[in-house]
Amino acid sequence: MLKIEGISKRFGGLVAVNQVSLAVKEGEIFGLIGPNGAGKTTFFNMLTGIYKPNEGTIVFEQQQVQGVKPFRIAKLGISRTFQNIRLLKDESVLENVMVGMFGKTHTGLWSAILGLGSAKKEEELVKEESRKILELVGLAGLEDELAGSLSYGNQRRVEIARALVSKPKLLLLDEPTAGMNADETNEIGELIRKIRKNGTTVILIEHNVGWVMGLCDRIAVFDHGEKIADDEPEKIIANPAVIEAYIGKEDTEEVNKFAAN
């Protein structure tokens, strides 16, 4: 589904991502882990058109997308969440999710302004799809609540719902469990499995290594902008370079226990 060859991103003299190549198969849950500043979010920003790579190619379903505008990449079927929650906090939960359908609607500006039948019909369809996604993520019944009034964990769920409502083929999640307790983290894991079961491929960035090991089919490890490993979880956890750069010998046993659960 996704093939990246030798992409790099430089900001002046700083090399944020350096010659990274990897491939993601359709239907996978693929994890990206690594220390802060390793280049993971920069990598996501290149996949979604926010940054243009200085070098390399990004091919999504046989089409090169490096340097393509973000809205066009979204229309191709790639959607994402962000490391920092970006909700319209003074708008309702339902309205926040409906925003995610903007790129897939067809009604023109004047039809909407004049309240023509086609605009009203499409708005009702968008509301219906948004309610279905809210039910999927566990927020049914909270449609009319202000997004800013929800708990931190539920705000994360709204973000995921907004990314899902356009029915993406590939969903990128940037630290989806940041700030969550153990129960909330496990619930998000179950949600991601459900999303994959519904036909969406998932790539996620996460610092909770044990949780990632138990969830993902494959994992890539970044360090100082470079990919130092790319393999199945049980091989990643045993990789000496990964242990030295990120996990630490004293934490490896603890990670294995978490992943087993």
Describe the protein.
Keywords: ATP-binding, Nucleotide-binding, Transport. With 261 residues, this protein is α/β, with parallel strands linked by helices. It has helices at 40-47, 70-76, 93-99, 109-114, 117-136, 152-164, 182-197, 209-215, 233-236, 240-247, 249-260, and strands at residues 2-11, 14-24, 29-33, 55-60, 63-64, 78-80, 170-174, 201-205, 218-223, 226-231. The strands form 2 sheets. It has a 6-stranded mixed sheet with strand order 6-7-8-3-9-10, sandwiched between helices. Strands 2-1-4-5 form a 4-stranded antiparallel sheet, covered by helices on one side. Helix 7 (182-197) links the parallel strand 7 (170-174) and strand 8.
Overall strand count: 10
Helix content: 40-55%
CATH superfamily of the domain at 2-77 and 168-260: P-loop containing nucleotide triphosphate hydrolases
Poorly predicted regions are 108-114
User: Architecture of the domain at 2-77 and 168-260 in CATH?
Assistant: 3-Layer(aba) Sandwich
Domain ABC transporter: 2-249
GO biological process, one term: L-isoleucine import across plasma membrane
Organism: Neobacillus vireti LMG 21834
InterPro entries: AAA+_ATPase (IPR003593), ABC_AA/LPS_Transport (IPR051120), ABC_transporter-like_ATP-bd (IPR003439), ABC_transporter-like_CS (IPR017871), BCA_ABC_TP_C (IPR032823), P-loop_NTPase (IPR027417)
Q: What key phrases describe this protein's structure?
A:
single chain, 261 residues, Rossmann fold, 6-stranded mixed β-sheet, 11 helices, 10 strands
In short:
This is Amino acid ABC transporter ATP-binding protein. With 261 residues, the protein is an alpha/beta fold. The protein has a domain at 2-77 and 168-260: 3-Layer(aba) Sandwich (Rossmann fold), CATH 3.40.50.
